[in-house]
Design goal:
68% of the residues lie in helices and 0% in strands. It is mainly alpha-helical.
């Protein structure tokens, strides 16, 4: 080879070594060329696409799909009088307006359904709370009724006991009053029987102004002793008068 300077003739070992070096260099060059081709193709596929060419719009297969229509809207500045694209009474936005109206209608329906569901849930929740409250009130009413019955029974028992006590007290008082009346009657009867009026006790007629004076409305007359004493005094007086005149 022209790139290898060696004396002629070469030794067999040097020839094998040079051959291996040449083979290694060829392989490296082939790999470098292949890698460069891969990178070049990748660059072309990513950076040098057909759409980036200046003349791509001339042979673009999607040109008709990408092209704008002759008239976009009623206020399209490209619509000239000579273009015959704008006419009175046309409504190009009818489709979009109907679509928008449909979307609004769907949104309204969704909102109405959502509000209806919320109202239904709120109503169900309120009904549940109402039923729960009514159940609590019923339980409270039953409890109050039981307490009222118990209180009424206790009141009836207390009233019955109180009435029995009053009746017993009344009977005891009546017995006491009756016994007192009997005692008073017996005392009065005893006083009448053993009193000074019926026994004609002369002491009741004795006046406090002197032993020789009596209370006339109580005086029952002289006793036998008084009569005997008077007779004795008369006899003595008679004897004295007789002695005086004899």
């Amino acid at each position: 080879s022209s790139g290898i300077n060696a004396e002629w003739p070469l030794r067999p070992g040097e020839m094998v070594k040079n051959s291996q070096i040449c083979t290694l260099l060829d392989t490296r060059q082939q790999n470098d060329t292949m890698r460069q081709n891969v990178e070049l193709n990748k660059f072309r596929s990513e950076q040098q696409t057909a759409a980036s060419r200046r003349e791509f719009d001339l042979y673009d297969p999607e040109s008709k799909k990408k092209d704008q229509p002759a008239r976009v809207s009623d206020d399209d500045p490209r619509c000239q009088v000579s273009g015959l694209q704008l006419f009175q009474g046309e409504d190009l936005s009818a489709k979009e307006r109907k679509k928008l109206q449909q979307e609004q209608m769907r949104e309204w329906i969704k909102q109405q359904l959502s509000e209806k569901n919320r109202e239904k849930e709120a109503s169900m929740h309120a009904e549940t709370l109402y039923q729960r409250k009514m159940m609590q009130l019923d339980q409270r009413a039953v409890l109050l009724a039981k307490e009222e019955d118990e209180c009424r029974r206790n009141l009836n028992v207390a009233t019955k006991s109180y009435n029995a006590a009053l009746d017993a007290e009344r009977k005891a008082k009546e017995a006491i009053d009756k016994q007192k009346e009997l005692d008073d009657n017996f005392t009065e009867l005893s006083n009448q029987v053993y009193g000074d009026t019926l026994t004609e006790n002369p002491g009741v007629a004795q006046s406090s102004f002197g032993g020789h004076r009596v209370i006339t409305d109580r005086w029952k007359g002289m006793s036998d002793e008084q009569k005997v004493e008077i007779m004795r005094i008369r006899e003595e007086q008679v004897i004295i008068i007789y002695n005086l005149f004899s």
